[in-house]
Amino acid sequence: MAKRIEVKDLDIYYDKFLAVQGVSMTIQPRSVTALIGPSGCGKSTFLRTLNRMHELVPNARVEGSIVMDDDDLYAPSVDPVNVRRQIGMVFQRANPFPTMSIYDNVAAGLKLNNRRLKKSEMDDLVERSLKSANLWEEVKDRLQKPGSGLSGGQQQRLCIARAVAVQPEVLLMDEPCSALDPISTQAIEDLMLELKANYTIVIVTHNMQQAARVSDTTGFFNLQGVGKPGELVEIDETTKIFSTPSQKATEDYISGRFG
Ligand SMILES: Nc1ncnc2c1ncn2[C@@H]1O[C@H](COP(=O)(O)OP(=O)(O)OP(=O)(O)O)[C@@H](O)[C@H]1O
C-alpha cells in the first residue's frame, strides 16, 4: 500500500483543447499532496488523469507519462479499470448509492471488483473500512438503513469507507469538503491525517487554510494566460509554499491578490 507516483511532461487534452500543459511532479507515499489554484486552471482535470478517469470523457487523452512505483499507468497492456481499483477517488459531492444500505454501500466496491468473500469476511471488511473512515461508531447499529439517510459529512465518510474497502494504494480527493459544514470538514481533515499513514493522498482544494492544515506538499496550478492551458507553477513543501514560495504568481495567489 501507499505508492509513489512520478508524473513526467504531462499534457492533458479534451479532444483538440489542451487543458493542462507540461506537468511534472513526484507524489510521495504516506503523505498528503494538495493541489491549489484558481478556477479553471486544470486541478481536477489533472487529478482525474492520475487514475485514468479522464479518459471516460469522449476523445479526452494525455501525452507524457505517469508511473506508480515501477508501473507505467498508461502502458498499452494496462487495464484502466484496474488502475481505478488501485487509485480510489472521492468526489466533491458525497455520492453514496441512494437505495443501498450503509453496509451494501461499503461492500459495493468489492462486489464490483468481483471479489467473492464469505459473509463473515465481508462483515469484517465492512467494519474495518467504516472504522478507518471514522464512521463505525455512528452507524454500527443501523448498517441496513439506506446510506442516503446519513448527514452530508457522514455520507462523505461513507464514500471514503467505500473507497478504502477495496484497499487502494492511493486516494484522490476532489474538493471533498466543499459541501460540508465546519465540523464535518474537520472530521474529514482529521481522517486524512490518519489515512496518510497507509495511503498516498492527493487532494484538490479551494480552501488554502485546508491545504496548509492537512498537506505535506502543495502544488500551485495557474493558467498560463487567458485562453491558454493550465500549468503547474511550483510544487514544494507546504510550509515553504505558504511562507516563501519561489514564484511571484504563487505568492500573489496565496496572499489573496488574485484568484
Ligand atoms: N469534460 C470536459 N470537456 C471539455 N473541457 C473540459 C471538461 N472538463 C473541464 N474542461 C476544461 O478544462 C479546463 C480545466 O478545468 P478543471 O475543471 O480541471 O479546472 P479546475 O482547476 O479543477 O477548476 P475548478 O477549481 O473551478 O474546479 C477548463 O478550461 C475546463 O473548461
From TrEMBL:
Signal peptide: none annotated. The keyword Translocase applies. Pfam families: ABC_tran. Keywords: ATP-binding, Nucleotide-binding, Translocase, Transport. Coiled coil: none annotated. Residues 5-248 form the ABC transporter domain. GO terms for molecular function: ATP binding. InterPro entries: AAA+_ATPase, ABC_transporter-like_ATP-bd, ABC_transporter-like_CS, P-loop_NTPase, PstB-like. PANTHER family: ABC TRANSPORTER I FAMILY MEMBER 17. This is Phosphate ABC transporter ATP-binding protein PstB.
